[in-house]
């Protein structure tokens, strides 16, 4: 590029940077607001409203939550159990199916592919599903009701199938000559060779599992089975939920010193989201890959 | 294997089955899951034509023909939820195309790797949040007593707004939340598609005297066309399916906001869980399922005709 135009381009680039900096600030603002409110003094909040910079730093909300952490710890426990179990089950079941569908000598591959794919085009809707889970399978208020709805993603099976097909046939054939069965080939050859795609799909699923609240809303009434996100939902809708778990706590709430509702709500959101928000951005590139790899055709 | 084609068809079927059994067994868990949790509910859509009673079950309840639909299609709700679902989704398709493409083109012009990484990450993090958490963020702005927006309005000497009661502003709040949560992810997808652009094009173009704007619109942008088409077609096919979390969590189910926030999905949930109105819920559900299915098939057929390689199936 000519030397002459260098300064002009530099100016243009600064304008772009300045613009993007403003956009970035706007994007951070909601997160900033939640954190700031969570460390604001409740008296200030009642008097002046929320503020982006706390007038007086106050960690009372966090102290209260950490002094009687039973509710949030239980929600963490439920979320970890559900996310983990659903992830392992899903990776196992879907990769097994994907392997079978990837084999060109599988006679029923086309039919089963269509059988699975059709569920992405049409579904019976929520009402029959709701009745099935509650009235026929009697899964209401059980861990299964939280886990099972999370393992039905058919889309990734096709992504895995495309990936498995790229493994040279010669490898599979030579294993067969050595006397390996399909299960052995799947387990000993295909899975180890497919770690990248399994990691990608696993990560995407894990995030979805961690953030799931819909199945809890439909099938759970018992508070000891609330996952994190659903606990957050109930607390936001009903401040009374906050005081649950504090009945037996050492701190006593009186009219003169009520529960700091607003800042505690936000503190709950921070505690529930924080760890994940710190971990996941490191895996950004996987999320893009997950959406762009492979096609469903064939 | 060809030698043995002779035996009768049953024997041949059994032999095929035997040969494919190991692979068939590998697909069995997923196939069984899909049968129970997807295909059984598909059969359950007959509820829409029945007077469903819990004690009589799906098969035992009485057929009542189109009675449920008569109620649903004559209620004002039907028009409202259809309008909102289609209207918002149409808007989302436009916003979800124009804004991410613009940002991807901007990102492409940035040479500083660090700056790029910072901008991408700040725009991307909302993708990791659930709509529940986004509802907390919305609440911190919209809370009528202490929300940031009302605090600001009061400082400016303006009248504060009761955001969870006034429906009109939500026509803007919903799209803003949508863009905020999704634009980072979409931008990253478009940006990734630009990684394949060969820099020789730009060198040749600048030798010919092309300016930056010309290079962007004539070289960079066309690289994005295929992805733009695929994503838009997919979105059009799903125009009947609302992003449930957005419409359910952010307005916090405030009945004063239904005019601008109620979509088919939220309507079904409410009829089912809060009003226990299986008749209305199943009719709306059936309506969504059938129209949605038809739209997916239709868009796919059109795409297949124009450019087969972009068709979904």
From TrEMBL, chain A:
<comment type="similarity">
    <text>Belongs to the binding-protein-dependent transport system permease family.</text>
</comment>
<dbReference type="InterPro" id="IPR000515">
    <property type="entry name" value="MetI-like"/>
</dbReference>
<dbReference type="InterPro" id="IPR035906">
    <property type="entry name" value="MetI-like_sf"/>
</dbReference>
<dbReference type="GO" id="GO:0005886">
    <property type="term" value="C:plasma membrane"/>
</dbReference>
<keyword id="KW-0812">Transmembrane</keyword>
<keyword id="KW-1003">Cell membrane</keyword>
<keyword id="KW-0813">Transport</keyword>
<feature type="transmembrane region" description="Helical">
    <location>
        <begin position="78"/>
        <end position="100"/>
    </location>
</feature>
<dbReference type="GO" id="GO:0055085">
    <property type="term" value="P:transmembrane transport"/>
</dbReference>
<keyword id="KW-1133">Transmembrane helix</keyword>
<keyword id="KW-0472">Membrane</keyword>
<feature type="domain" description="ABC transmembrane type-1">
    <location>
        <begin position="76"/>
        <end position="283"/>
    </location>
</feature>
<feature type="transmembrane region" description="Helical">
    <location>
        <begin position="266"/>
        <end position="283"/>
    </location>
</feature>
<dbReference type="Pfam" id="PF00528">
    <property type="entry name" value="BPD_transp_1"/>
</dbReference>
<protein>
    <submittedName>
        <fullName>Carbohydrate ABC transporter permease</fullName>
    </submittedName>
</protein>
<feature type="transmembrane region" description="Helical">
    <location>
        <begin position="112"/>
        <end position="131"/>
    </location>
</feature>
<feature type="transmembrane region" description="Helical">
    <location>
        <begin position="14"/>
        <end position="39"/>
    </location>
</feature>
<feature type="transmembrane region" description="Helical">
    <location>
        <begin position="143"/>
        <end position="159"/>
    </location>
</feature>
<feature type="transmembrane region" description="Helical">
    <location>
        <begin position="197"/>
        <end position="220"/>
    </location>
</feature>
From TrEMBL, chain B:
<dbReference type="InterPro" id="IPR050809">
    <property type="entry name" value="UgpAE/MalFG_permease"/>
</dbReference>
<dbReference type="Pfam" id="PF00528">
    <property type="entry name" value="BPD_transp_1"/>
</dbReference>
<keyword id="KW-0472">Membrane</keyword>
<protein>
    <submittedName>
        <fullName>Sugar ABC transporter permease</fullName>
    </submittedName>
</protein>
<keyword id="KW-1133">Transmembrane helix</keyword>
<keyword id="KW-0812">Transmembrane</keyword>
<feature type="transmembrane region" description="Helical">
    <location>
        <begin position="122"/>
        <end position="143"/>
    </location>
</feature>
<dbReference type="GO" id="GO:0055085">
    <property type="term" value="P:transmembrane transport"/>
</dbReference>
<keyword id="KW-1003">Cell membrane</keyword>
<feature type="transmembrane region" description="Helical">
    <location>
        <begin position="286"/>
        <end position="303"/>
    </location>
</feature>
<feature type="transmembrane region" description="Helical">
    <location>
        <begin position="223"/>
        <end position="248"/>
    </location>
</feature>
<feature type="transmembrane region" description="Helical">
    <location>
        <begin position="21"/>
        <end position="49"/>
    </location>
</feature>
<feature type="domain" description="ABC transmembrane type-1">
    <location>
        <begin position="82"/>
        <end position="299"/>
    </location>
</feature>
<comment type="similarity">
    <text>Belongs to the binding-protein-dependent transport system permease family.</text>
</comment>
<dbReference type="InterPro" id="IPR035906">
    <property type="entry name" value="MetI-like_sf"/>
</dbReference>
<feature type="transmembrane region" description="Helical">
    <location>
        <begin position="86"/>
        <end position="110"/>
    </location>
</feature>
<keyword id="KW-0813">Transport</keyword>
<dbReference type="InterPro" id="IPR000515">
    <property type="entry name" value="MetI-like"/>
</dbReference>
<dbReference type="GO" id="GO:0005886">
    <property type="term" value="C:plasma membrane"/>
</dbReference>
């Amino acid at each position: 590029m000519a030397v002459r135009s260098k300064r002009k381009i530099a100016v243009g680039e600064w304008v772009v940077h300045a613009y993007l900096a403003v956009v970035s600030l706007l994007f951070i603002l909601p997160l900033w607001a939640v954190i700031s409110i969570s460390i604001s003094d409740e008296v200030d909040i009642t008097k002046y409203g929320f503020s982006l910079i706390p007038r007086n730093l106050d960690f009372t909300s966090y102290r209260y939550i950490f002094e009687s952490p039973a509710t949030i710890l239980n929600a963490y426990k439920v979320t970890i159990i559900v996310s983990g179990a659903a992830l392992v089950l899903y990776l196992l079941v879907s990769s097994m199916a994907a392997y079978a569908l990837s084999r060109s000598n599988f006679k029923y591959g086309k039919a089963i592919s269509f059988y699975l794919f059709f569920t992405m085009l049409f579904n019976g809707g929520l009402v029959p599903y709701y009745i099935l889970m509650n009235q026929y399978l009697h899964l209401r208020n059980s861990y299964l009701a939280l886990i099972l709805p999370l393992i039905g993603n058919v889309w990734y099976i096709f992504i895995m199938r495309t990936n498995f097909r790229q493994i040279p046939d010669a490898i599979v054939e030579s294993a067969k000559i050595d006397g390996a069965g399909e299960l052995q080939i799947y387990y000993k050859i295909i899975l180890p060779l497919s770690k990248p795609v399994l990691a990608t799909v696993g990560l995407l699923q894990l995030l979805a599992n961690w953030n799931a609240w819909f199945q809890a809303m439909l099938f759970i009434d018992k508070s000891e089975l609330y996952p994190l996100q659903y606990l957050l939902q109930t607390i936001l809708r009903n401040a009374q939920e906050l005081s649950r778990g504090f009945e037996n706590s050492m701190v006593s709430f009186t009219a003169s010193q009520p529960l700091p509702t607003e800042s505690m709500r936000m503190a709950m959101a921070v505690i529930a989201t924080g760890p994940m928000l710190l971990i996941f951005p490191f895996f950004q590139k996987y999320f893009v890959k997950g959406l762009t790899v492979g096609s469903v055709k064939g | 294997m060809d030698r043995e084609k002779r035996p009768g068809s049953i024997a041949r079927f059994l032999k095929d089955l035997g040969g494919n059994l190991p692979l068939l067994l590998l697909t069995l868990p997923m196939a069984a899951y899909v049968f129970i949790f997807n295909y059984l509910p598909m059969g359950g859509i007959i509820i829409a034509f029945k007077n469903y009673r819990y004690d009589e079950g799906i098969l035992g309840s009485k057929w009542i023909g189109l009675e449920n639909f008569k109620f649903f299609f004559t209620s004002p709700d039907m028009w409202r939820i259809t309008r909102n679902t289609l209207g918002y989704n149409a808007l989302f398709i436009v916003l979800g195309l124009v804004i991410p493409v613009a940002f991807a083109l901007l990102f492409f012009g940035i040479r500083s790797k660090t700056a790029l990484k910072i901008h991408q990450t700040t725009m991307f993090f909302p993708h990791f949040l659930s709509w529940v958490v986004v509802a907390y963020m919305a609440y911190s702005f919209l809370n009528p007593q202490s929300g940031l927006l009302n605090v600001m309005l009061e400082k400016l000497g303006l009248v504060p707004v009761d955001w969870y009661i006034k429906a009109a502003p939500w026509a803007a709040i919903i799209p803003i939340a949508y863009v905020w949560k999704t634009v980072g992810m979409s931008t990253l997808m478009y940006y990734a598609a630009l990684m394949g652009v060969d820099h020789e094009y730009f060198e040749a173009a600048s030798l010919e005297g092309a300016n930056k704007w010309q290079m962007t619109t004539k070289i960079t942008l066309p690289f994005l066309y295929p992805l733009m088409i695929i994503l838009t077609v997919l979105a059009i096919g799903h125009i009947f399916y609302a992003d449930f979390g957005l419409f359910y969590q952010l307005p916090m189910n405030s009945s004063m906001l239904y005019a601008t926030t109620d979509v088919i999905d939220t309507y079904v949930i409410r009829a089912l869980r809060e009003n226990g109105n299986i008749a209305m819920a199943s009719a709306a559900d059936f309506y969504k399922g059938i129209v949605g299915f038809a739209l997916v098939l239709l868009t796919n057929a059109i795409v297949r005709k124009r450019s087969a390689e972009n068709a979904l199936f």
